[in-house]
Queue: 2 jobs
Job 1
Amino acid sequence: MTASEVLAEAAPATLIEATGVSFSYGRQPVLEDVDLRVRAGEFVALVGPNGSGKSTLLRVLLGSLAPTSGSVRLFGEPPSRFADRARVGYVPQRPVLDSEVPATVEEIVTAGRLARRGWWRPLHREDHVQVGHALASVGLAELAKRPLNELSGGQQQRAFIARAFAGEPDLLVLDEPIAGVDAESQRRFRDSITHLIEEHGAGVLLVSHELSAVAQDLDRVVVLKRRIVFDGPAAQLAASGVSLGVHPEDLPLWLEELR
Amino acid sequence: MPWPIDTLPYPFELQFMQRALVASVVVGVFAPMIGTFVVQKRMSLIGDGIGHLAFAGVGAGLVFGVSKIWAALAVAIAGALGVEWLRSRRTASGDLALALFFYSGIAAGVVLVSLAGGLDSSLLVVLFGQPLTVNDQEIAIVVGLGAAIVAAMLVLRRGLFAVATDEDWSRVAGLPVGLLNTVLAVIVATSVVAAMRIVGLLLVAAMMVLPVASGQLFARSFRGTLWWSVVIGVASVVAGLAASRIWGLAPSGTIVLFSAAIFSVVAVAKRTTVPKLQAEGAGL
């Protein structure tokens, strides 16, 4: 085995990787030459001012949009050919549920097992056990039988995080999961994310403007303004006067100045 | 099946009522079942739109001399696939796509029926339903299509639930969103045609939506809503058929009116009892 092979084996696996990615809506460039990588066990925050291309980048990374140029690899494969989707947990921004037909927290979270089990197959005891673990990890076990639309915004968001956890993901992608949620939900959110990383070695890519709850746990912060303008440890941002944990308002103000 | 079944009491003691009861109960089961997913997707009127498309199929059947029900099924499925194709590509919104097919379907139906010699009593049955005159062959078709619909729903329910509640998440999770939406559209089209002879194309959407409207008031879960909707759907057809026999009313309309009445009673009861319970819970 060569030295480079030994090093490659020792390094945590790359879960998601964008190389030179550009994307345009018509003639309007949204992303330019973006490089981004998340490895197993890494907790990476993606931030940027409104309209900086964060949501578009997520859609490109997850394969919902094809890049205009550059390449994306999910677990080493192009997203369009990546079949083992259960390895990716996704918490979308403000998921919309029809409040007309009630759905319980447990029903929503159980849907998270479909990618792992197969959507047409009956669920097994193991599936229900995993759903129970996922609910417990976000502190919603006692509310499992409650209709989702009777819960607070923060509790609903935790249910969607539990749905992602239920699939036992190796990579968790979250789009603004704690925007406007209460302090208790933010604390639960932090605990469940760090548990997923430390116990299961998963990688996490978090898009959020509110990083104060997880500031101490982040490995890297990536700042996007159509292109990557910063990619490094959160501590380095402090040199720019941006304190993620002590002064939570610093980051949004700094991002606004970037516009 | 031997007709009549001796043990059934008035108003179901006669052969024609027992035929109507069997066919209608099957509709009372599958229409609300599929309706639960349709309502969840905020496409409550799709049954109405597909019904109008099926009318074009009936007209085509008359013009070309083929079975009305199979022609209606073919056109309804083709139309449902078209609606889904437009919706999925966001070429038109769900409502706009429905309206486009809705009006085209009814217009084509009118033209084709006129080419075939105009309206007759058999077309009134297609439009408004008439369960009291179903024959064994028609019952077999309703039961066969109904069994296929229920079987498909039981197998697909988890995937359909995931897609109906959160399409973006389902896509990232690797669920075949396009396939499931297409299958749902085909099941809706099949349901419309299967129920056509019983409640009529103009009322079939009501049997998909009204029991669900009541069911969601009873239930606190999606699964509970689905089964309550089926119970209310069956109760509506049994009560509606009985009332139509007792008071000489049009059965399809009576069935739907019972379904609407159940919703009204449940909604009023819930509106008066829930605040009272909440007040008691708050110690007021």
Job 2
Amino acid sequence: MSSKTTIYGIFDDEEILLSSVKEIRAKEIEIKEVYSPFPVHGLDKALGLKETRMAITAFIYGCIGISLAALMIYNIMIVDWAQNIGGKPNFTFYHNMPAFVPIMFECTVLFAAHLMSITYFIRCGLYPGGTSNSPDERTTDDKFLMEIEVEGDMTSVKNLLKKTGATEINEKEV
Amino acid sequence: MQKEAEIRDPLILGNKSYHDITKDIARPVEGKANKYWWVLFSLSFTLFIWGVLSMAYTIGTGIGAWGLNKTVNWAWDITNFVWWIGIGHAGTLISAVLLLFRQKWRMSINRSAEAMTIFGVAQAALFPLIHMGRPWLAYYVFPIPNQFGSLWVNFNSPLLWDVFAISTYFSVSVVFWYIGLIPDFAMLRDRMSAKTAPMKKQLYSFLSFGWSGKAKHWQRFEEVSLVLAGLATPLVFSVHSIVSMDFATSVIPGWHTTIFPPYFVLGALFSGFAMVETLLIIMRKVVNLEAYITIKHIEYMNVIILLTGSLVGTAYITELFMAWYSGVEFEQYAFLNRATGPYWWAYAIMMTCNVLTPQLYWISSIRKSFVATFILSIFVNIGMWFERFVIIVTSLHRDFLPSSWSMFSPSFIDIGIYLGTIGFFFVLFLLYARTFPVIAQAELKTILKSSGSEYKNKK
């Protein structure tokens, strides 16, 4: 029975990591995860990650925000209790709208920002008191860690990691 | 990797590695507070207590405890409110607008500038709250269904716009700040040992939300930061525009002008940058961050102060010109009274501190000096407080009816509340400096190779 082993390649420098990721992926070895202390530019493309859709969600949430704000103001100011305030036309939403623009704008930002942040937390599995699943604590300091899962012989992967600049290689049986 | 011209001055001094950055940022959190910290903290705490007592007295007896009268019915409370909100604006400008412009120098100052925003806006929010007289009824300002018939808030009113603007601004700033803090809390969590500091380790584990720095998470992190910056940029301009409309939409001579929104926004940035400088010049010494907050950062901020100060000066002169050109005698008198009436000294302080002294930044040696910058930043803080005082009190104290003309002088309670918020602000900031990563270290590490002095010299 061939057991699965996880190999952790540790790097000191983001440029070496980046070139190593490219070489390893060119050999069609699957990289399970990369942990880094800061965002490394171009790493997502090198790993073949899809583009994130966070910005699209923000746009959708913003649209929800502005619609809800308009609906709320329409109900309160026009339908429920229309009042003459400073002679501003109050019979139709359309005529009174210039005065409502600031709050509609604020609600757009409020919804877009908060709901996008909540989506971000949920998608990344981040919550107060959550536990980190980084295999090495130094990855929030100055080390970059590449995680590869291998079935069977792992010397070739280890050699490749060493050749492409890993300073330390650890392994764990799964 | 990012590229940067070699002739640009480095933003990180000394031989720093990634690990050195980690150590330097974690040091204030891991170490003990020094003597200066305790002196500053006890002083601020004393002021804070005075403020709390003054606020309690105001709520217990009513707004009559203040120096207001029938003519000057809005004075120190709104002056302080606008001043604190303005101070907050620089934090958002640094973290959001400079992010959109890809300014690398923002990275070592954005965390503290944003902390200043949040603490400043919190102080500002206190003033309308206590001015309500019955703060436990504060929920009346929100459009919530209620049992009083159809008693709704008025969406035509700039005061309600303010409620929405400030609550959005405050909450979005907190979220923006916190999302940036998560990787740095994770760094602190991983440095703490579960044996020697179990409480701290647990605390930072809780605060770091289980961050581990996966590639996909960083990709989302960057996009979320960018979108939040894009949202915060129009937000910050809207907030002070709306604050200015509290005045501009009224028909009081001296307030009823269309120049107010841009003029207030510029004034806010001007005063905010001055407060950032005041705080950072002290902080870089107290927590040993000289290598990260360099004279280059201060110089960049001084250039912004010079620009916004000159624009604010232009706005002052435009106001005077428009008053004369309008041909309206009330408008003309309002401005003549500001400059030459009984409050001429406040006007003179405003003009000197906001328009004249910042012009000294044209001189390179002053712009590049910590001592001169510190003194001039205090001048700007004072000048901008007086700007709000001049706009508010001198426009009110001589109204259309000379028989009701009067003067305003603050009561002991007024002064107590104002100094109390300054104390509260510094209490929060000092606690922050001891428990939070005061520099966005994860972001700072991304520019070490392009802007660190060691790497620049190697090339």
